Amino acid sequence: MSKEIKVGLLAIVAIAALVIGYNFLRGSNVLSSDRTYFATYPKVDGLNVGAIVVLNGIKVGQVKSMELEPTKGNSVRVALELDKELVVGDSTTASLGGTLLGSKGITLTLGKNSKNYNGGEEIRTVTPSSIADAFQAKALPVLDTVGATLANINGFLNKDAQTNIQGTLLGARASAEALQKLLVANQANINTITRNLAQMSTALNKTTGKLDKIAVNFSQLSDSLKNAPVGPALRRLNATLADAQTTVKSLNTALNDQSGSMGKLLHDSTLYRNLTATTAASNDLLVDFKANPKRYVHFSVFGGGKDKSKVETTKKPDGSTTTEVKKVDGASTVK
């Protein structure tokens, strides 16, 4: 084989490799057996050759080429290279969309086909409104409103209003300067207040430690009370109260029982009348003793004496009185 033939074959291989590599870098696989379909859009802003074609978020192909069609209103005919295993039919739609980063792509939507395509057919297209169009539709009324508001503000701010605003700003500046002078003049007081706040914070920290100790003591006291034999003490107290209640009930029964001594003492009126009569007789005896002491006591200096008599008055329970004279044989003698 001559050198010329070798050089020619090498040039052919290099050119073929260059074409295949160029198409591969553009996203088109020359050796691929994928099927090609077409989709026509009014415009394809940002769509490039090699852009991905996705179905349910999975890449199923890529944009093979794009060409302008002047005879159809300058619409763009896009060639889509799709996997041959993908079933495409008359219900399939190709929607042109993009991400927030600006990259464009085509999204396929499959449906129930009445006719399946084998490649080379035209796929129905859907062109949703872009984000820029939606933003422009929303922003234009807002911009008009802002422009009208600014115009109203410019009309309101005449020379007098501007003068008043300038005076207000000057007054605010003077107030700020006066406040600055006041702060400088009272810097010592501010420093003192700051130190007092620091000391107060230190004291609060120390008090916090004491409060922690108090909390620990209360916790220990609570644990002690929890572990204390409160239950047995309460049971003994309940037993004592029950005994006291039984004793009080027995005493109440005894007091209400008129056949007993205490019941008779409380409910029998005869004892009461006898006590009343005895008291009255004692009072009469004391009165008579004070009035006539010689009837009851006789003094003799030399011993002995004459027989004396005494009168005794007795008051009966029914209120009547009886008088009785008794003879006394002797008397007391004082030596």
Automatic annotation (TrEMBL):
<keyword id="KW-0472">Membrane</keyword>
<feature type="region of interest" description="Disordered">
    <location>
        <begin position="305"/>
        <end position="335"/>
    </location>
</feature>
<dbReference type="InterPro" id="IPR052336">
    <property type="entry name" value="MlaD_Phospholipid_Transporter"/>
</dbReference>
<dbReference type="InterPro" id="IPR003399">
    <property type="entry name" value="Mce/MlaD"/>
</dbReference>
<keyword id="KW-1133">Transmembrane helix</keyword>
<feature type="domain" description="Mce/MlaD">
    <location>
        <begin position="35"/>
        <end position="109"/>
    </location>
</feature>
<keyword id="KW-0812">Transmembrane</keyword>
<dbReference type="Pfam" id="PF02470">
    <property type="entry name" value="MlaD"/>
</dbReference>
<feature type="transmembrane region" description="Helical">
    <location>
        <begin position="7"/>
        <end position="25"/>
    </location>
</feature>
<feature type="compositionally biased region" description="Basic and acidic residues">
    <location>
        <begin position="305"/>
        <end position="329"/>
    </location>
</feature>
<protein>
    <submittedName>
        <fullName>MlaD family protein</fullName>
    </submittedName>
</protein>
